[in-house]
């Protein structure tokens, strides 16, 4: 009995050290050496200041910027409170919010179909991407506010349109933060 107890305790100590300390340090070290940017959250800097991450969306509400999809994570894009709304498609609160968002977006585009990702949150509430259709829907507003031609803004959108992963996974998408940062470089926002 005593021998079994000693063996069990030794196995617990050895596996805790191996899998609780050695393995995480080795994996973290390899990630830092081989994939430094990805291991650190793919952070973006502008003018020497941290402005966000390629992986976490941000709320843009000013008319001179492309707007992200809505977020239900905390007070909006709060990574500590990642979640969707969990409201079903027949929930009155969700229907009313979406209808209000559609009406607000149709002010610039009366009667136009609003891309679904501009009025619905992602499952995590942190999605940094919108569809190319959602970006196209916003081109006229952004071009007008930046005093740029719509073609110039469309070229920027095209430069930031990422294809399917591995050519067949997912859908094409546009990273809103990266697009807005390049838009600020191309034509600083009028204040």
From TrEMBL:
Q: What domain of life does the UniProt record list for this protein's source?
A: Bacteria
InterPro entries xrefs: KdpC (IPR003820)
Where in or outside the cell it occurs: the entry states: Cell membrane
| GO molecular function terms noted in the UniProt entry | ATP binding; P-type potassium transmembrane transporter activity
Give one Pfam family.
Answer: KdpC
Keyword annotations from UniProtKB, A to Z: ATP-binding, Cell membrane, Ion transport, Membrane, Nucleotide-binding, Potassium, Potassium transport, Transmembrane, Transmembrane helix, Transport
Describe its membrane topology.
Answer: Single-pass membrane protein
What are its GO cellular component terms?
plasma membrane
Q: How does it assemble?
A: The system is composed of three essential subunits: KdpA, KdpB and KdpC.
PANTHER family, per this entry? POTASSIUM-TRANSPORTING ATPASE C CHAIN (PTHR30042), POTASSIUM-TRANSPORTING ATPASE KDPC SUBUNIT (PTHR30042:SF2)
- Which protein family is it in? Belongs to the KdpC family.
Its function? Part of the high-affinity ATP-driven potassium transport (or Kdp) system, which catalyzes the hydrolysis of ATP coupled with the electrogenic transport of potassium into the cytoplasm. This subunit acts as a catalytic chaperone that increases the ATP-binding affinity of the ATP-hydrolyzing subunit KdpB by the formation of a transient KdpB/KdpC/ATP ternary complex.
Name this protein carries in UniProt: Potassium-transporting ATPase KdpC subunit
The organism named in the record is Tunturiibacter gelidiferens
């Amino acid at each position: 009995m005593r021998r079994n107890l000693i063996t069990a305790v030794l196995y617990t100590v050895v596996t805790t050290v191996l899998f609780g300390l050695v393995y995480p340090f080795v994996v973290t070290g390899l990630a830092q050496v081989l994939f430094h940017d990805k291991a650190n959250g793919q952070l973006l800097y502008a003018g020497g200041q941290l402005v966000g991450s390629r992986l976490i969306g941000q709320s843009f509400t000013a008319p001179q910027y492309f707007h992200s999809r809505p977020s239900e994570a905390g007070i909006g894009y709060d990574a500590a409170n990642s979640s969707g709304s969990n409201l079903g498609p027949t929930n009155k609160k969700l229907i009313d919010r979406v209808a209000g968002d559609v009406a607000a977006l149709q002010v610039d585009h009366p009667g136009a179909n609003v891309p679904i990702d501009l009025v619905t949150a992602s499952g995590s509430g942190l999605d940094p991407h919108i569809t190319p259709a959602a970006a196209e829907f916003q081109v006229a507003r952004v071009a007008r506010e930046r005093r740029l031609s719509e073609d110039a803004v469309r070229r920027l959108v095209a430069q930031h349109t990422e294809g399917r992963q591995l050519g067949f996974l997912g859908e094409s998408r546009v990273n809103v933060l990266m697009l807005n940062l390049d838009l600020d470089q191309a034509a600083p926002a009028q204040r």
